[in-house]
Amino acid sequence: MLPELQTDVLIIGGGMAGMRAAIEACDKGAKTMLVNKGAFGRDGAASWMAGAGYETALYPPDSVEEHIKDTIKASRMLNNQELVRVVLELSPQGVKELAKWGVRFNKDAQGRYEQWQMPGHHYMRSMRASTGHPGPFFSRALRDQIDQREIEVVDDIFATDLLISDGKAAGMLGIDMVTGELKVYRAKAVILATGGAAACYNLNSNGNATLGDGMAMAYRAGAKMMDMEFHQFTPGFVIWPPNIAGSDTYKVLTVIHAWLLNRQGERFMKRYYPETMEWSRREQVSRSIYAEVRARKGSPHGGVWLSLAHQPRNLISQFLEFHKTDSVIKRIQESGVDLYHDAFEVGAPAHYTQGGVRVNTKCEASIDGLYAIGEAGSGLDGADRLGGNAMPFCMGMGVISGREAAERAHYQPLPHIDEEQLNRLAKEALSPVERAEGVSPTPSKKKIKDNMEEKAKFFRSEKDLKAGIKFVEELREKILPNMRVSSPSRRYNMEWIEAMDVRNMTDIADMTFHCALMRTESRGAHERADYPREDPAWLKNIIIEKVNGEMTFTTKPVEFPYYKPEDLFK
Amino acid sequence: MSDQNQLVEIKVYRFDPTVDKEPRYQAYKVPQEGYSILNALQYAYDNYDKSLSFRAGCQGKGAARCGACPVVVNGIPVLSCYKMVEPGMVIEPHPKFEHVKDLVYNRSKAAIEVYDAPQHFVQEIDDEKCVGCNDCVVMCPMAVYELRKVNKKLKARSKDASSCCGVTCEICVDGCSKGAIAIKPLA
C-alpha cells in the first residue's frame, strides 16, 4: 500500500495559474492542496520569466470587446471564442486583485494606470509592475496570499500520472523527491496547472522545468488534447555565455535599434524583410534567425550576433543609463561583453505552448473532474498568442477553475482509487530505479530536444516530420522500456526524474510531429515549407486522443459565435 | 562547445543522509569561461556524476529572480546562477535551511524558522530615502526584508540577514527606485 493524502481540490503546479486557482478554491470553502515540482513560489514555473506584462483593457476607447477581437485575430481564428470571452472579461478584475495584494503599478498624473502597447494590440494594455519585470512580482504577491490561507502546499512532488476511476479524475500518483517514495494524492477535483512544453526544444526561454508533464499525463489518462502543432518562438534571447543564456534582450532590439549580424558580419535581415529589418514582427525575426542558422551562417552556439556598435557612443550611454536597474543588461556587461564594441549571441528560442488539454468554458477537460488551466490548457491562443496575454489567461482560468472545482467538491464524494490501475502506474514509475540493466535517460532527453529543434521549429516539412515520427517510434520501442537510473539512492534522484521527463517528452514530441504533419498549411506559429499558404479549409482544430492505447487524431471545425473570419480579415 | 574552454577544479559537498555516514567533498573539472556555478553543477551532472543533486529553479533565465538555487561558496552565501566559476571553489549547501541531499535544502516556512546561520552581509537602509513601498520585500529572492513602523512611518528592515546572498545578487540595491538600499560585507 502506498501512502495516501486526501483533499477536496488538488492543484498540480505552483505557477501563476495554479496559485490563483488555489486562492479561489480555498476562498470558496474547499480543502485545497497545491503540489509543486520544486520549492514552492521559487522553482520552475515559467511565469517567473514573464516579461511583457499583464494585458487588460481599462480605459475607453479601449474595451474588453476590443481586446477579445485582437486576441481572436492573432489566433488566426483558431481559438475558442466563448472561452476567450469568459476569461478576458475577468482581466480587469485581475489587476484590481494584484494591486490589492501588493503589486505596485505606476500611475500617471491623472491617477490612471500607466500602460504600454504591445505588437498586435490596438491599444495600450500592458500593465507592468513599477519594479520592472512583472512576472516575479506578480508571482510573489500570489505566493504571499497563499501563505496567508489554509492551503496545504507540498514541495518537491513530481507528478507521474493521473488516477482515473469510473471515468472520473480521482487524484494523482507522484514521486516525493525528498524521500524517494511514491505517494497517492486523492481528490474530488484535480486542476492541472503544469505549464507548457517549451523546454522540449533545445533553445527555450522557460528554464528546464516546463517539459509538458501535465499535458503528457492528461493525454495518457485519456483526456482530449488540442492544437499541439502550435509552439511559439521569440527572438532576441541570449544563448551564450551559458550563465546568462535564456535572458530576454528583446528590448535591446527595440528600445535602441540594434543590428542582427550573421557570422560574416552581414546584416542578414535585409534579405528577408528589407523594409522593417530588425523591427519586423517577432515570428518574422525568429524565422530569419533560424534560416541563417540552418544555412550554417550562424554564430558558434547556434544563433546570430546582436550588435550596438553602429550606434553613437552617447546614445548607447543614454540607453545603458536608462536601463541601469535592468538585471539582464547588467549581467550581459558583467559577463565581459562591452556593449559599445562587442556583439553577443542571441537565438530564437521556444517560448510558449499554445496547444494543450482541450477545455470548455468552465476549464473542464474531457475527463469528469479534471480541469486544465494556464499553458496546460488550450483554446485561448489558437495559432498565435498575443504578447502579454498569458498572464490574464492564467489569472482568469485560475478564478474559473478554482470556483468550479470548489463547487464540485461540495456535492462529489471522495472517489475510490482503482487499485489495479494504481499498481500498474506505480510499477511503471518505479521501473527505472528497479531495473538491473539499461540505458541512462540523459542522452535521450538531449536527443528529443535536438529533434524538436531541427524538425519541428520553422520550415517544417513532410520529410523532417516523418523522420521525427520515426525517431519517436524508436524511442518508444528501444529507450522507454529500458531506462535505468544509475544511482541506487532514491533521495532527490535527478536521474529518475529525467527518466520520467523522457517519457513525457516522448508523448509531447509525438503529438507535435503528427499534428504538424497533418496540418498541410502555414498558420500563425505553425509554418510548413511545403505548404506556405494559409488554407481556409484548415479552419479546424486537431484533436488528439488516446484510444485503445493508440494516438488518434480527428479534426473539428472551429465555431465562430462572435466573430467570423470575414469580420476580422477584410 | 566546452572543448576550447579550459577546465578548472571545483569541490562540491556530497552527503546523502540515507546512505552516507558523513559528508565528503568531491572534485569535478568544469569549464570556467562563461559558466556560473549552476552551469558547472549541471555540467558535472551531465558528464560525470548522475548521483549529484542540486536545485536549479529559473536557471538564471532573465537573471536570478526565483531564489531557488542559493549555495555557500568558500563560506559565503551566493546565488549559484549568479556567481561565476573560479578555480578551487568549495561549494556547500546554504546552512540556513534544512539539508536534504548534497546541495538540496528544504525551504518550507517551518524549516526557515528553525535553522540559523552566520551573517555575512549587512543591509543598510537609508530611512531618509526609503518610502516604505514594499518593493524590496517582494523583490528579494531570499525574503530578507519586511516593513516595520519606524517613527509612525513604514520603513524597510532586514528580518533575516543570514539568508542574504549579498554581492552576488543585489536585486534590492538595483531595484529600489529610491536608491535607499546598500549591501556591505559584515565588518
Key features?
heterodimer; A: 570 residues; alpha+beta; seven-stranded mixed β-sheet; four-stranded antiparallel β-sheet; B: 187 residues; five-stranded mixed β-sheet; 11 strands; 14% helix; elongated
Percent in helix of chain A: 25-40%
Q: Could you tell me how far the N terminus lies from the C terminus of chain B, measured between alpha carbons in angstroms?
A: 41 Å
Q: Low-confidence segments of chain A, ≥5 residues, pLDDT <50?
A: none
What global shape of chain A is seen? globular
| Succession of helices and strands of chain B | EEHEEEEEHEHEEHE
Kindly provide the radius of gyration of chain A, computed on alpha-carbon positions and rounded to a whole number of angstroms: 23 Å
Mean pLDDT of chain A: 90
Name the chain pair whose interface involves the most residues. Answer: A-B, 62 and 52 residues
Computed Rg of chain B: 18 Å
Whole-number mean pLDDT of chain B: 85
Return residue spans of chain B where pLDDT drops below 50 for at least 5 consecutive residues.
none
Secondary-structure class of chain B: alpha+beta
Number of helices of chain A: 17
Straight-line distance between termini of chain A: 63 Å
- How many H/I helices of chain B? 4
Q: Give a count of the beta strands of chain B, DSSP E runs of length 2 or more.
A: 11
Largest sheet of chain B, in brief, is: 5 strands, mixed
Measured by DSSP, the beta-strand proportion of chain B falls in 25-35%
Strand order of the largest sheet of chain B: 2-1-5-3-4
